[in-house]
Specification:
Layout (H helix, E strand, L loop, with lengths): L8 E3 L5 E6 L2 E3 L4 E8 L4 E3 L4 E3 L7 E2 L7 E2 L5 E3 L7 E11 L4 E10 L2 E2 L5 E6 L2 E11 L18 E9 L8 E2 L17 E7 L1
Antiparallel strand pairs: 1-2, 2-3, 4-17, 5-6, 7-16, 8-15, 9-15, 10-14, 10-17, 11-12, 11-13, 11-15
C-alpha cells in the first residue's frame, strides 16, 4: 500500500540542513537550483519561476570614457532567484581589446542601484586582447552588506550590472566586443558577450 511522507526540512544529527523544500522542488545545500546561460542576443531564457530576456548586443562598445563610468553592454540584467537560494553567482564574459599598448580599465559592480564595493577591480596588460570573465557571488540571508553585496532577502527583481571606465587618455582599452586583430591581419571582428546566472541552495 502506497504512503506519503511530507516534511519541510530534513536535518542531520548535527543540525545541518540536508534537504530543503521550495514549493514542490527539493534541494540539498550547495545544489544548483537553476543555471541560466546564454549569449547576449536578446533570447528568452526560461528559469524555474519565470523567463528572462537576455541583453541584445549587436555591435562593439567603443569610446569608453577615461573619467566617467558607464554600463558595460550585455552586463545589465534584472534577476530574482528562486526562494530556496542562499547565493547567486553572476558571470559576464566579454571580449577586451587594446587601443594603447598598455591598456587599463576599472570596473564597478552594482546590484539594485548599490555598488558592491569589494567587487571593484582593474584589468590591464600589454596589448591585451582576450575574452575575459567578470564574476561575483551574492550571498543571501543575514544582514545586508553593500561591501560584499549580501542581500538580506531577494524576493523581487533586482538589476545587476558592471560599469567600466578607462584609466586615462594614454592607457585606453576603449573597446568591448571587438578584436584588434583577426585571422593574421589587423581586421577588427565583433565578438558577442555572454551572461550566466546560477542560483545555489
Amino acid at each position: 500500500m502506497a504512503s506519503n511522507l511530507t516534511v519541510d526540512t530534513i536535518r542531520s544529527s548535527s543540525g545541518s540542513t540536508v534537504l530543503m523544500q521550495d514549493g514542490v522542488r527539493q534541494y540539498g545545500p550547495g545544489q544548483i537550483i537553476e543555471c541560466l546561460a546564454g549569449i547576449c542576443d536578446g533570447q528568452t531564457i526560461q528559469g524555474v519561476d519565470r523567463s528572462y530576456t537576455w541583453p541584445n548586443v549587436t555591435s562593439a562598445q567603443t569610446g569608453i570614457s577615461d573619467t566617467t563610468y558607464q554600463d558595460a553592454t550585455g552586463s545589465v540584467i534584472s534577476y530574482q532567484p528562486p526562494a530556496a537560494a542562499t547565493k547567486v553567482i553572476y558571470s559576464y564574459r566579454a571580449m577586451f581589446a587594446w587601443v594603447h599598448d598598455h591598456c587599463i580599465s576599472h570596473w564597478k559592480l552594482y546590484i539594485d542601484g548599490a555598488e558592491v564595493v569589494d567587487a571593484r577591480n582593474s584589468r590591464s596588460g600589454r596589448y591585451m586582447e582576450e575574452k575575459t570573465a567578470l564574476e561575483w557571488i551574492f550571498p543571501i540571508g543575514g544582514t545586508a552588506d553593500t561591501d560584499t553585496g549580501r542581500q538580506a532577502t531577494w524576493d523581487s527583481l533586482k538589476e545587476i550590472k558592471w560599469q567600466v571606465r578607462d584609466y586615462g587618455s594614454s592607457n585606453e582599452r576603449d573597446r568591448l566586443h571587438l578584436t584588434q586583430y583577426w585571422d593574421g591581419s589587423g581586421t577588427d571582428v565583433f565578438s558577442r558577450p555572454m551572461l550566466t546566472i546560477t542560483a545555489i541552495a
